[in-house]
Amino acid sequence: MPVHVKSWKRFTGREGFKVKRGKVYLVGAGPGDPGLLTLRGKELLEHAEVVIYDYLANEEFLKFTGPQAEHIYVGKKGGDHTMSQDEINSLLVEKGRDRFVVRLKGGDPFVFGRGGEEAQVLVAAGIPFEVVPGVTAAIAAPAYAGIPLSHRDYAASMAFITGHERGDKAESKIAWDKLATGVGTLVFFMGVKNLPEICTSLITHGRASETPVAVVRWGTTPQQQTVIGTLQDIAEKVVRANLKPPAITVVGEVVRLRDELNWFEQRPLFGRCVVVTRAREQASEFKTILSELGAHCIEFPTIAIEAPPSWEPLDAAINGIATYGWVIFTSVNGVRFFMERLRLTGRDARDLHGARLAAIGPKTAEALEQYGLRPDLVPNEYRAESILEGLSGEEIKGKRVLLPRAMTARDVLPETLRRWGAQVDVVPAYQTVLPRERSTEMMERLISGEIDCLTFTSSSTVSNFFSLFEQSAILPVLKHVCIACIGPITAKTAEEHGLKVDVMPSEYTITGLAQALRSHFENRGK
Ligand code: SAH
After folding, report:
1. Which fold, 5-135?
2. pLDDT at 125 over 70
3. I need a labelling partner for 381 at 20 to 30 A (CA). Which of 81, 110, 193, 281 fits?
4. What is 139-266's CATH number?
């Protein structure tokens, strides 16, 4: 792994080292919003050989890691510890001896994260370590609930406190009497279970019972939930709301500012769970727009793009690439898989110099341009037939034509070219498959009522969705789910499958669809 060795030197700064030594980075993953990981944290993840992560560290960060990385989940959710702290410590020492380890912890590693203890274990074992602070939930969860921890009018001091210790414990490390009256804003971690005792202790030790309190669950994530009350009634309200850990509890006058500053939970699609059915490769733009509007997006690609069952035909074509007069690309994926295979077989774009290139539409042409290739032919219309119109003027007779494309595709193009006397090789460069694995999970989510909306951005996403489920089983559970389609053709396909389409934009684009969803849910109210 040459890339890794280079980066290793860069990080350790030990240029002359002959024997590779390990190092452990205790990295704060932030409170949950993926945007709140530090740049340093991301950089280290990219180079990690081993990532050891917690229940509270957003799993989405694993995508930053390279193919060399080993991912180890060590759990820790309330009582159900996947691994005990001792086991985690041993693991850190074992992996840290000769590997580049990122120990990813929720929030900040040195704030109630036992990061201090882990660092001590590393020191004792003689393993070098570094700490990368993270955005702690103590600050971030209140911030996303519209609560600043300090404010000139309300609070000039604050304390972070563990809620694990019961207020009535004799040997408590917490000076309840001093905290209750001596500190402006109190922030409790892990305090849901002991909330009644915490509130009673504070009142008994002199804090006014009408002091406002906020409990913020899963702060900074699309599932954020906030309950507001006073020291007197918050415990009861939390039980009534059935609010479970993980949550941060904020006690103090600053909580009043939420009425004015509650920005995050007021976004138009906040609290809405929207399913995106596009292929993973195409989902990200739509997801970004929906997330900015506050939606919780679930990716459920109804189509997956994979390598063909065998590379042999494509490799043979690439081997003889100099013999082709034309290479015709009919999709972005065709371009990507072809170019990647060209590269992996030791060639590059220069090997295409003898062939003329055609792209079926502007997106495919753009994909070629990204490899520094300018297509000789791009028809005006996005249809296989249009390529033929463009080509008819060309001298195609007797030429060899290569069509690297999906495993199954329409035959008009090769057949017509053959009729014109071309020698056509159709080779599979990729295949589209139905990703069945997650359909049971999706069914469960739909039945539980967790999903608010299903979005379809093409007819094929609709028909693929229906081929993943039994029609008789899926239709009844979709009754109470908002069905959103990008345009009339997609909507027609949805209706043909028995769906009632609730949302369709007047502008048939991703942005149009997102805006239509926004109006739909705003009109419906929360
Ligand atoms: N090191 C972490 C805290 C770990 S202790 C940090 O700095 O944030 C675990 C506790 O953190 C949870 O029980 C909960 O009280 C709090 N917590 C962590 N992430 C949270 C989140 N997204 N929203 C609310 N509370 C959170």
Report:
1. Cobalt-precorrin-4 Transmethylase; domain 1 (3.40.1010)
2. yes
3. 281
4. 3.30.950.10
